[in-house]
C-alpha cells in the first residue's frame, strides 16, 4: 500500500473559456472551489506571460479565497519571479514557455539553463516557496534538478500521453525510471500534462509519484458531466491505481 497520490486540479482552461468573451463567466476561482469539494488536494494555475488564460487578478483571488495549496506555474522571468515573491504561493513550478506555442510542448531544460536557473531557484526557496521544475523524465534533467537544489520535479507526461503502443510503453518506462531516480535522491516527483481517464492509471501506479497535476481534460470533460463528476472520477482512478 503506497501513500495517497495528490491531485492538483489545473483550472487554466476555465479561464480560457471566460476570456473568449471577456466577461467574468466562467470563473476559475469558482472552479477551484468546486474542485476542492470534489477531492482535489491542490490547485494549479499557469500565469502565462501573454495572459492567454489565467490573469494576475485570478492569482490574487486564488491566493485570497481558496484554502487549498496553490501551485503557481511560471516561466523563469524577472516579471514572474516578482509576482511569485509578492504572493508566496505554496509552490512555484518553473515551466518553459514559448509565446507562439499552443501548449507547453516539452520540459524545462534544467541542464542547459543551469546557470540562469540557479539564482532563480534560490530566490524562490529563500522566500519559502517550494520550487518545482517541470522537466522531461530523463536522467540528465533529474541530475540537473538535484544540483539546482529543487525539492520537487514534475515530469512532463505529454510525450507519454500522445504516444501509442510500444512507444507509449517506452515513454512510461522513462517516467518510471526518472521517478525512482528522483525519489532516491530526495526529490519529490510529480507528473502532469495531457493526462486523461484513459491514460492516467499506469502513471498513477508509479509508487514514487506524490502528485499529478491535471487540467485540460478535466475541464473538457466537465462540459459533458460537470466538474464535480470529472474530478471525482479522476480521483477514483488514481486511488484504484494504488
Ligand atoms: C505547464 C502545463 O502543462 C500546464 O500549465 C498546461 O500547459 C496549461 O495549459 P496551456 O499549456 O494551454 O497553457
Ligand atoms: N503541469 C501540468 C498541468 O498543470 C496540467 O496539464 P494539462 O492536464 O492541462 O495538460
TrEMBL record:
Enzymatic class: transferase
Annotated EC: 2.6.99.2
Keyword presence, Transferase: yes
Location of the active site: 46, 73, 193
GO biological process, one term: pyridoxine biosynthetic process
Subcellular location, record wording: Cytoplasm
CDD domains: PNPsynthase
GO CC field: cytosol
Lineage: superkingdom: Bacteria
Cell wall biogenesis/degradation recorded as keyword: no
Reaction it catalyzes: 3-amino-2-oxopropyl phosphate + 1-deoxy-D-xylulose 5-phosphate = pyridoxine 5'-phosphate + phosphate + 2 H2O + H(+)
Record Pfam families: PdxJ
Keywords: Cytoplasm, Pyridoxine biosynthesis, Transferase
Residues the UniProt record annotates as site (Transition state stabilizer): 154
Pathway: Cofactor biosynthesis; pyridoxine 5'-phosphate biosynthesis; pyridoxine 5'-phosphate from D-erythrose 4-phosphate: step 5/5
Principal localisation: cytoplasm
GO molecular function list: pyridoxine 5'-phosphate synthase activity
Binding site for 1-deoxy-D-xylulose 5-phosphate: 12-13, 48, 53, 103
Binding-site positions, 3-amino-2-oxopropyl phosphate: 10, 21, 194, 215-216
Role of this protein: Catalyzes the complicated ring closure reaction between the two acyclic compounds 1-deoxy-D-xylulose-5-phosphate (DXP) and 3-amino-2-oxopropyl phosphate (1-amino-acetone-3-phosphate or AAP) to form pyridoxine 5'-phosphate (PNP) and inorganic phosphate.
Family recorded in the similarity comment: Belongs to the PNP synthase family.
Complex formation: Homooctamer; tetramer of dimers.
The protein's name in its UniProt record: Pyridoxine 5'-phosphate synthase
Organism of derivation: Sphingomonas xanthus
Gene coding for it: pdxJ
Amino acid at each position: 500500500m503506497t501513500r495517497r497520490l495528490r491531485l492538483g486540479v489545473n483550472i487554466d482552461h476555465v479561464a480560457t473559456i471566460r476570456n473568449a468573451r471577456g466577461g467574468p463567466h466562467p470563473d476559475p476561482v469558482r472552479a477551484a472551489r468546486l474542485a476542492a469539494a470534489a477531492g482535489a488536494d491542490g490547485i494549479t494555475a499557469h500565469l502565462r506571460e501573454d495572459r492567454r488564460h489565467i490573469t494576475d487578478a485570478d492569482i490574487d483571488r486564488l491566493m485570497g479565497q481558496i484554502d487549498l495549496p496553490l501551485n503557481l506555474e511560471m516561466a523563469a522571468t524577472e516579471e514572474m519571479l516578482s509576482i511569485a515573491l509578492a504572493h508566496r504561493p505554496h509552490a512555484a513550478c518553473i515551466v518553459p514557455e514559448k509565446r507562439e506555442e499552443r501548449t507547453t510542448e516539452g520540459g524545462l531544460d534544467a541542464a542547459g539553463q543551469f546557470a540562469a536557473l540557479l539564482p532563480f531557484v534560490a530566490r524562490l526557496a529563500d522566500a519559502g516557496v517550494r520550487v518545482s521544475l517541470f522537466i522531461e523524465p530523463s536522467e540528465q534533467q533529474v541530475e540537473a534538478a538535484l544540483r539546482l537544489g529543487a525539492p520537487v520535479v514534475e515530469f512532463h507526461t505529454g510525450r507519454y500521453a500522445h504516444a501509442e503502443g510500444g512507444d507509449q510503453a517506452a515513454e512510461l518506462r522513462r517516467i518510471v525510471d526518472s521517478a525512482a531516480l528522483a525519489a532516491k535522491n530526495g526529490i519529490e516527483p510529480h507528473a502532469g500534462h495531457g493526462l486523461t481517464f484513459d491514460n492516467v492509471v499506469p502513471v498513477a501506479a508509479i509508487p514514487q509519484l506524490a502528485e499529478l497535476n491535471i487540467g485540460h481534460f478535466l475541464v473538457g470533460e466537465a462540459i459533458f458531466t460537470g466538474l464535480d463528476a470529472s474530478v471525482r472520477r479522476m480521483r477514483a482512478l488514481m486511488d484504484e491505481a494504488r
